[in-house]
Amino acid sequence: MTSETSPDVHGAVGRTARALVSAVTLPELAQGALEEVRDALGLAIVALYVPPGDGPVLERVAVTASAPVSARDRLVFDDEAWQLAVQGDAPLVLHDRGEWLMEHPFSPPADAWLVLPLGTGTRRLGVVIGGAESLPAVDSGAAAALRLLGDLLGAGIAAAQLRQELQRTALERERMRLAAEVHDGLAQDLALAVRELALLESSDAASRERLRAAVTSAHQTVRSRLKGMIVTPGLGGLRPALEELCTRFSHRGVRVELRGDDRLPEVAPDVAVVVLRVLSEALTNVERHAGAANAVIDARAADGRLELVVSDDGPGFAAVGGPSEGHFGLLLMRERAHAVGAELVVDSTPGRGTRVALSLPA
Questions:
Q1: How confident is the model at residue 189 (pLDDT cuts 50, 70, 90)?
Q2: What's the confidence (pLDDT) of residue 260?
Q3: Which range of residues forms the domain containing residue 246?
Q4: In whole angstroms, how far apart are CA 244 and each of 3, 176, 240, 247?
Q5: Number of compact structural domains in the chain
Q6: What average pLDDT does the chain have?
Q7: Burial class (CB in 10 A: 0-12, 13-18, 19+), 68
């Protein structure tokens, strides 16, 4: 890289540093940073990869490219390549296709490419990899700027992982509270009822068997709900957690379609808990009560608010009465929403399905 291009790299460092102080998700931060790297170095494609675990494997988080170039979703390294490309301290510039290092990350393969390790101190958190037809030599100033850029991106990843851990902790605390409530009440009562039914003496064996089956089914439902209370957001924040929850219900037989924004703004951990619990409760109602064939979830941010709408094509219900009329779950959803300053509206009309809308400040 010539000295004429070095100011562009320094400019990319400054713009990335400013982006780090704003409240954005990792994909949003990564996308902006990758565009800065691409423009500063004249690259055709740039991708961010982070390790999903402890092994020498990286998974792609974000990519920016000119068609028709694409990046692999997953990179696998041997130990030597891992130490050189990921654990190294300096940018690695290759003026060949680099098959000796690892399987080429781009298709079609780039003739020249850059590997930029990301880290905070001694901790390495992934790499940025860019490709082009050719790359100029990297002088000492540009190399130092690139290392700083890698450290900044590493700090962004570390911050995203910390937010993820905070959300996981809040969700786990919520799960344990609910599990304790259910275990100390309904679950124990049902287990006792199953045992007592075995001791009943009745001349009506068929009635007793129907009662046994009903209580056993309820017990199994409670256990299933206890297992399914936790959803862990990934580095991408709330959107991947919503996708995971929708997939879980799809596997249970509810046809669920998730629409809206590909990226959602960061929210506080207690707010994330409420969003996920409201969606879980709404989909549970669709599964057990709505008699619906399909559910559509629309999640998007607009005008400084996060909007989540769950609609189904079930028969609907007459929205009258209180919790005693069978809608206690709706009351719980409203209380959860109000606790974090959100608004929850449930619209349902017999024959027209049900719509649950959650709105909260983003």
A1: low
A2: 93
A3: 237-362
A4: 47, 20, 6, 5
A5: 2
A6: 76
A7: exposed
